[in-house]
Amino acid sequence: MFKKLVKKLIAAACVIGMTCAITLSSAACNIETAHPKVRISVEFNEVVYELDYTLYRDMYPNTVRHFIELSESGFYNDVLIHNYRTSDWFSGGYSYNADDYAHSSAVQAYADYLENHSKESEYSELVNDGTLTPTVFAKTKYDDSGKEVIDSESALPTLVGEFDSNKFHEIENGALNAEMGVLKMFYYEKSATQKAYVRFENDQPYMRDYKYNCATSVFAMQVGASSSYSEDKYCVFGKMDSTSALTDLIDAIDEYFDGSVTSVSANDVNVDNYENFSEKDSDRGIEVDFVLPSQPIVIKTIKVIGY
Fold this sequence. Notes:
Layout: H1 2-29, E1 37-44, E2 47-55, H2 61-72, E3 79-82, E4 88-95, H3 98-102, H4 107-116, H5 120-128, E5 136-137, E6 140-142, E7 148-150, E8 182-185, E9 195-198, E10 206-209, E11 219-222, E12 235-240, H6 244-256, E13 262-267, E14 287-292, E15 297-306
Antiparallel strand pairs: 1-2, 1-15, 2-12, 3-4, 3-15, 4-11, 5-9, 6-7, 8-11, 8-12, 9-10, 13-14
C-alpha cells in the first residue's frame, strides 16, 4: 500500500514538473531578445527556398517590431517579389493570385494586376484595428495638465525611420551595412515638406520630416554586394547567417530566364494615401517602374522562429 502511494506521488510530481516546464517554456517564447529570427520561404518554379534572417531589435526596435507584427498577422503570406533584376528585391506591396497572374501577359495587364492586388487596404486595416504599434502621428493635443502629447487617434499608417539620414536614430557601434543578404525597410523618397510627430521612448512628441518617416509594409532583400539603397536612408535591420539558400535561389532564377523581362509602369499605392493629414501635398503621387517576371517569385510565408 505504501509503495503504491509513493508511486502515485512520484507520478503526480512528474506531471506537475512537466506542466511547469511547459509553462516556463511557453513564457520563454514570449521573452523579447536582442536578436529575433525570421524564416522567409520563397517559392520559385514550384521549389521553396527557406531564407533565415537575424533581426537586430537592440538597434532598430521600432522597425523590427513592425516587421514582426506584420509577419505574425499573416500580412506577408503570398506576396510578390518584384524588381528581381536589381540588387534589391522588393516585396510587401502586392499579393499573388495564380489565376490572375497567369493572364497578365501584356504590359498593361501587369499594371492592372498590381492595381487590383495592392496590399494597401489590408495594411490600413491592420493600422486601424491596432494590430500594428503606431509610431508616427499627424497631430498632437494637450492633456489635462496642459502638457502637449501625441494624439493617438491621428496615427499614420507608416513607420518611424531608423536610419542615419533621419538624424534622430544614431547607432554608435555595430550598425548594419547594406551588403549581400540583408533586410531593409523600404520607403520611396519624396520631396514633400510636411512634418509629422514621432514617438520614441515616451509620449513626448518630436516633430520630424515626414519623408524620413514614411515606410509602410514594403521591404527589400539585398541580393548583391552593393546597392544604391544604402543604410543612411533605408533601415538595414536584419541579415543572414548564411547566404547559401539565397544563392541557390538566385542561380535558379538566372538559369530559368533568358534575359527577357516585362517592365511595368504603375502608380505605387503603398506610399502615403492619408486623409488625416491637414495639409495636402501634390508631391505625394509617385510613379515607379516595376519588373515582374512571367514566372512569379513569391514569398509564401514569413515566420518568426525565435523571439
